[in-house]
């Protein structure tokens, strides 16, 4: 029975469901399915669990959506947000004014980030952070007297946001369907997907090919026209793609050779998900010119993003040139909520909790166990690949393990598995033939077992359904 017609819902649950169904436009929604099923109303969260409006408990296998790193219902962060709201929720940072949490947080991020990234611009989320970065890098090259250096290189399957500009950076071409994009601004190179690399090619040779492809793309566009290369350390929404070893270091070398800046989009990978506050340098040996972050910065308690710029970029954008006059020295960019006091206070509390409770250490300790337990699902006939790192993981379903052939999209395999998980009290994210697992970082080993057991049972149940329906054998 679809959610639309479940008779057991209490009246207030039904009413809420109806209000949402009739009025709220959800992001990234398949309208015909939504029309039939509506949305699960999540009403409360505690630690690694959330509860729907009818009181059913689910393990949150996706941390809200890659966000709630310290877990739900944390009293400490709630109290800090409330204190800040009472003291000063908001005052702008435009008119030569600032506020204590914004100043403190900028300094904290400079402390935590690689040592050359000391200048922080606050945004309202991840898309805005990437938007800010593009505008700022264009400004930077204008300042350097290189106004043609504007093109951006991204990767197929990358996800960098959903604003007009960042959806162009997003290389999930299926997400572009029916929308417009800015013309000739963003160019794409291949997704570095070891599982789907060409047959018979070693990981090393595959990495060589990807590095050569990037260099060729820069040369084809003309290095004098290319501003920056955007990359997530591990692709998230594109399918939790861990690139081959050395990929980030080597693509950075190519970029440096051609005066192309590197932007590491750490919207998902920062604040503990891979066991480090920032993972670019700590996990991948990358020294990007810019890091963008959001989500885990406040553990999703309130919206906030940030763009962290190198000293070198700041020196250029803030320079007034040899003969400063009234027209130079201005940086005309910003959002009303840049440096929002309440959001920055939440981030400060969140960082304190992550550090004090040793959450990065916990992720580094239990992450390999999580990877190993989840990898055991590769024994199931429907599972082609289990991949990811620490608390950023994914299961890829296939019709045929040997050929890696996919089931037809109409089967909706990821959604079927997610629905079975939901019935068993676990939320995982379906994405086509993938199921993404990215829970709060506080999961114990026992809770990891619980998650993997439910997911395994759900995949087995889905396989039985497919056989029964004649969709798979
Ligand atoms: C890597 C990455 N960058 C950027 C974004 C966009 O962030 P937001 O949805 O906060 O705008 C996301 C969102 O999932 C993301 O995963």
Structural description of this entry:
This protein is globular. The mean pLDDT is 95. The relative contact order is 0.14. It is α/β, with parallel strands linked by helices and 473 residues long. The strands form 3 sheets. A 7-stranded mixed β-sheet has the order 4-10-9-8-7-5-6, sandwiched between helices. Strands 1-2-3-13 form a 4-stranded mixed β-sheet. Strands 11-12-15-14 form a 4-stranded antiparallel β-sheet, covered by helices on one side. The protein is 39% helix and 15% strand. Strand 2 and strand 3 (57-60) form a beta hairpin. The chain binds pyridoxal-5'-phosphate. Pyridoxal-5'-phosphate is lined by residues 125-127, 130, 159-161, 232, 236-237, 265, 267-268, 294.
Topology, number of strands: 15
Shape: globular
Order of strands, widest sheet? 4-10-9-8-7-5-6
State the share of residues found in helices, binned by percent.
25-40%
- Structural class, by secondary structure, is alpha/beta
User: What can be said about the biggest beta sheet?
Assistant: 7 strands, mixed
Please mark out the parts with pLDDT under 50 across 5 or more consecutive residues, or reply none: none
Distance between the termini: 25 Å
Order of helices and strands: HHEEEHHHEHEHEHEHEHEEHHHEEHEEEH
Ligand roster:
pyridoxal-5'-phosphate
Give the rounded overall mean pLDDT: 95
Total DSSP helices: 15
């Amino acid at each position: 029975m679809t959610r639309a017609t479940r008779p057991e819902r209490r009246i207030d649950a039904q009413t809420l469901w109806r209000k949402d169904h009739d009025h709220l436009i959800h992001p990234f929604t398949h309208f015909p399915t939504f029309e039939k099923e509506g949305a699960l109303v999540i009403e409360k969260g505690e630690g690694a669990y959330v509860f729907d409006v009818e009181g059913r408990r689910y393990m949150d296998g996706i941390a809200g959506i890659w966000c709630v790193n310290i877990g739900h219902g944390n009293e400490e962060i709630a109290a800090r947000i409330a204190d800040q709201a009472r003291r000063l929720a908001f005052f702008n940072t435009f008119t030569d004014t600032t506020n204590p949490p914004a100043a403190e947080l900028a300094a904290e991020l400079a402390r935590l980030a690689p040592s050359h990234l000391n200048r922080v611009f606050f945004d309202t989320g991840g898309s805005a952070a990437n938007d800010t970065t593009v505008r700022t890098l264009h400004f930077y090259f204008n300042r350097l007297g290189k106004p043609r250096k504007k093109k951006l290189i991204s990767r197929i399957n990358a996800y960098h946001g959903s604003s007009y500009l960042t959806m162009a950076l997003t290389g999930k071409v299926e997400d572009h369907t029916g929308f417009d994009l800015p013309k000739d601004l963003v160019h794409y190179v291949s997704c570095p997907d070891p599982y789907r690399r060409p047959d018979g090619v070693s990981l090393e040779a595959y990495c060589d090919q990807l590095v050569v492809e990037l260099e060729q793309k820069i040369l084809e566009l003309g290095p004098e026209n290319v501003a920056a290369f955007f990359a997530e350390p591990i692709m998230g929404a594109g399918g939790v793609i861990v690139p081959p070893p050395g990929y980030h270091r080597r693509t950075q070398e190519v970029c440096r050779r051609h005066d192309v800046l590197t932007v590491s989009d750490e919207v998902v990978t920062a604040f503990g998900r891979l066991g480090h506050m920032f993972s670019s340098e700590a996990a991948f040996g990358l020294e990007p010119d810019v890091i963008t972050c959001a989500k885990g910065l406040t553990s999703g308690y309130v919206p906030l993003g940030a763009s962290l710029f190198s000293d070198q970029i700041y020196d250029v954008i803030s320079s007034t040139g040899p003969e400063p006059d009234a027209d130079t020295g201005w940086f005309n960019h910003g959002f009303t909520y840049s440096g929002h006091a309440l959001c920055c206070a939440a981030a400060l509390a969140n960082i304190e909790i992550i550090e004090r409770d040793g959450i990065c250490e916990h992720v580094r300790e239990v992450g390999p166990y999580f990877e190993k337990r989840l990898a055991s699902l590769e024994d199931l006939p429907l599972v082609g690949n289990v991949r990811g790192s620490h608390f950023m993981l994914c299961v890829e379903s296939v019709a045929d393990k040997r050929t890696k052939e996919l089931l037809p999209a109409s089967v909706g395999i990821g959604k079927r598995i997610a629905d079975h998980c939901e019935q068993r009290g676990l939320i995982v994210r379906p994405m086509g033939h993938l199921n993404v697992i990215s829970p709060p970082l506080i999961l114990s080993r026992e809770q990891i077992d619980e998650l993997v057991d439910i997911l395994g049972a759900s995949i087995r149940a889905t396989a039985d359904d497919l056989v029964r329906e004649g969709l798979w054998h």
